[in-house]
C-alpha cells in the first residue's frame, strides 16, 4: 500500500492516520498538499503512494474523524479540503499517547547504546 | 502532438473501467493529478512527460480500485434489518393506502402521495432515531466497535437526506392538496406545523453531519431528537388536530394515541439523557 525510501512500509502504514490527523489539527488541507507536507517534514523518507492516500482519508471521514468540503479555486478547478472533527481530535490524543509510550520505551532502551 | 484534456478523459475512462464507479472519488483523484502535472511542469517537464509521471505516481487503475475496495463498509445486521423493516413497512402502507382509496372510490393522487411520503419520511426519521439509540446503548456499554460506529455513521449519512427529502415532499404535497381542497396552501393546522418542524430538524441534521464539525455522538443525538420531533408531529399533531376538529375520533382513539406518544417521548428522553455522557471505549474490535 505504501512505499517508503527508508522507513519500512508497515511503520509508514501504521503512522498514516496519526500523521494525517496531526497535519489537519494545524488547519484544513487537501490530499496533494498533505502528501507534499509529509515528504517535506520527513526529508523525503516517508513517501505515500499518491493514489493510496485517498482511501485512507475516506475511511477516516466514514469514521467521523474528519470532514470534507469542495472548494472552487480561482482557475475554476475544484479541490476537496479536509478538516479535523472533535472525534478526530480525541482519536489523535489517544494515538499520540500510544506513540509517546513506544517512543519513550525505545528511547530508554537505546539510551547510551551504539548500533 | 500531445493534448492533455483528451489524455485525462482517457485516464478517467480507464479508472471507471477498473471499477472505480464513484464520480466524486474520481473528481478528487483528477484534482490531484492536475496538481501533480502543474508541479512537474513548473519543475521543467513537458506536458506529456508530466502527465505520464503523474499518472504513474497515482498508481494503476487496478491498484487504486483495490485500495478503495478495502475501505468498503459492510453494514452491521441491525442496520440491514432496520432498512428492510422500513422498506417493508413503506410498501405495506402504500399497498394498504391504495386499497383503501380505491375501495372508498376516491383515488386522489396528491393525497395518496402525501400520505405515502409522510409514512416513509416519518418512518425513516424514526429509523434514524433508532440508529441513534443503538449508538448510545453500545457507547454506554462499551460495545461501540469501530465497525459499528462506521456502519451507523454511514447509515445516517445515506439515510438522512432521503428521509429529509421525503418529509419535505410530504409537506409540499400536503400544501398542494390543501390549496386544491381548502383554497389555501397553509392553514396553520397542527399537522402542517408538525411537518414544518420535522422538515427543519431533519434538514439541520443533514447539514450538520455533512458540513458541520460535530462529533458522531452529537449527530446521533440529533437523530434521536429528530425522531422525537417526528413523534410529536405525527401522533401529537393528530391528537391536536382531532381535538380541534374531530371530537368523535378523539374519543375513539385519543387515549391510545396519547399513550403511544407518551411512551415514545419517554423512551426518546431516556436515551437522549443517556447519550449526553460520552461513550466508553469499545472492548471489542
CATH topology of the largest domain in chain B: Four Helix Bundle (Hemerythrin (Met), subunit A)
Number of E-type strands of chain A: 3
Helical percentage of chain A:
55-70%
| Number of helices, counting only DSSP H or I runs of 4 residues or more of chain A | 4
Terminal Cα span of chain B: 55 Å
CATH architecture of chain A: Orthogonal Bundle
Overall CATH class of chain A:
Mainly Alpha
- Low-pLDDT sequence parts of chain B: none
Tally of distinct domains of chain A: 1
**Most extensive interface:** A-B, 28 and 33 residues
Shape call of chain B: elongated
Order of helices and strands of chain A: HEHHEEH
Architecture of the largest domain in chain B, CATH level 2?
Up-down Bundle
Written overview of the protein:
The complex is a heterodimer of chains A (115) and B (285). Chain A has a single domain (9-110), classed as Arc Repressor Mutant, subunit A (Orthogonal Bundle), CATH 1.10.10.10. Chain A has a three-stranded antiparallel beta sheet with strand order 1-3-2. Chain A has four helices and three strands, in the order H-E-H-H-E-E-H. Chain A starts with 8 loop residues before the first helix and ends in a 5-residue tail after the last helix. Chain A is 58% helix and 14% strand. Chain B folds into two domains: 4-70; 77-275, Up-down Bundle (Four Helix Bundle (Hemerythrin (Met), subunit A)), CATH 1.20.120. Helices cover 82% and strands 0% of the residues of chain B. Chain B is elongated, with a radius of gyration of 25 Å. The chains are: A alpha+beta (115), B mainly alpha (285).
